[in-house]
UniProtKB/TrEMBL annotation:
It comes from Rhododendron griersonianum. SUPFAM superfamilies: CRAL/TRIO domain, CRAL/TRIO N-terminal domain. PANTHER family: GH16843P (PTHR45824), OS01G0264700 PROTEIN (PTHR45824:SF18). Pfam families: CRAL_TRIO (PF00650), CRAL_TRIO_N (PF03765). This is CRAL-TRIO domain-containing protein. InterPro entries: CRAL-TRIO_dom, CRAL-TRIO_dom_sf, CRAL/TRIO_N_dom, CRAL/TRIO_N_dom_sf, PI_Transfer_CRAL-TRIO. The lineage of its organism: Eukaryota, Viridiplantae, Streptophyta, Embryophyta, Tracheophyta. One of its GO terms (molecular function) is phosphatidylinositol transfer activity. Residues 296-350 are annotated as: Disordered. It comes from the Eukaryota.
Length: 350
């Protein structure tokens, strides 16, 4: 029998006046030191502000989070990933960036996790590389980097449009889920503006209820459930997207959808533009030297203790989610009686 565990403690989100925000930004920049000049974009006011918001304005925790991201970028070199490194992962169209923005000018990342399951059954050779967590995460990083570079000047966040056609519980990879959660929360904080879960099956709604208590309120408030046969859902889509550009799978009037050859050409063109990315300036310096600089500016013991607590909470959360995924089994009767707190209700005619 699975032991009962407590959900994470909800800390009320703070709101600070502009002058206090700037003071905290300056404090973090000072704690990191001269290396900030070698990462002008990542250490800009707007970027530091995202890390502060992610850590509820705790400067020590935000500083550690940013330093860890700097170290990760020096080691992983996400800006160096090229289309040819991940092209095979994109063939089935399970993850790609749309060639349009939402009406707020936000980049749109389209995810179709159900295609992974369908393709594994019918085209195992096509999906051979997708069995590697490392490759899947590398492609996700590539997509995130390109999506960020494509943001409008006045936008810092993106929209995820997730299609659940063909999805079932076997589509979930615990390892990939863990790696994805860590990457998005720790390396790309506050980049998600809205996540639309399009027509998820009832079994996913039940799984969502199990996971939701362990998520930060600011995260799950960004999630909207949308159902194809619900009028209120259509209002959400029409308010967010140009229906002439939106793919027909999401109820739009664009019947073309994802074409791998066209997408590959587009990505290769963008790779050329990314070669002079602003943060690539850091590559003229020795990565090992910069890592040493970061280590010399490591936080004091109080921060180390706080960070350890955070890591323990995160680890415990992921363990709980893993147990729920692996032990999740619902009968048809259970599925039918689950209620979901969503923006729109599933149509009775479904």
């Amino acid at each position: 029998m699975m032991a009962t565990k407590k959900s994470r403690v909800v800390v009320p989100e703070k709101s600070l006046p502009p002058e206090e925000q700037q003071a905290k930004i300056n404090e973090i920049r000072k704690s990191i030191g001269s290396i900030t000049s070698k990462f002008p974009m990542l250490c800009s006011d707007a970027s530091i502000l995202r890390y502060l918001k992610a850590r509820n304005w705790n400067t020590k925790k935000a500083s550690k989070m940013l330093k860890e991201t700097l170290k990760w970028r020096l080691d992983y070199k996400p800006e160096k990933i090229q289309w040819e490194d991940v092209a095979h992962e994109a063939k089935i169209g399970k993850l790609y960036r749309a060639n349009y923005f939402d009406k707020h000018g936000r980049t749109v990342l389209i995810m179709r996790p159900g295609l992974q399951f369908v393709s594994q059954r019918h085209s195992p050779l096509l999906c051979k590389s997708t069995s590697s967590t490392e490759v899947q995460i590398k492609y996700l990083v590539y997509c995130m980097e390109r999506a960020i570079s494509d943001l409008k000047p006045d936008q810092k966040q993106m929209v995820w449009l997730i299609d659940f056609q063909g999805w079932n519980m076997s589509s979930i990879s615990v390892k990939v889920t863990k790696e994805t959660a860590h990457l998005l929360q720790e390396r790309y904080p506050e980049r998600l503006g809205l996540a639309i879960l399009y027509d998820p099956p009832k079994v996913f709604e039940s799984f969502w209820l199990l996971v939701k208590p362990f998520l930060e309120p600011k995260t799950y408030k960004k999630v909207k459930f949308v159902f194809r046969n619900d009028q209120q859902s259509w209002k959400i889509m029409e308010e967010l997207f140009d229906m002439d550009k939106l793919e027909s799978v999401f109820g739009g009037r664009n019947s073309i959808g994802f074409v791998y050859e066209d997408y590959a050409k587009r990505m290769m063109e963008e790779d050329k533009k990314m070669s002079d990315s602003t943060d690539n300036e850091c590559l003229s310096h020795s990565p090992s030297t910069m890592i040493l600089e970061l280590q010399h500016s490591e936080p004091n013991s109080d921060l180390t203790s706080e960070a350890s607590d955070d890591e323990t909470d995160s680890s415990t959360f992921l363990e709980e989610v893993e147990e729920k995924i692996e032990g999740f089994s619902l009968g048809s009767k259970d599925v039918e009686t689950v209620e979901v707190d969503t923006t729109s209700k599933r149509s009775e005619t479904e």
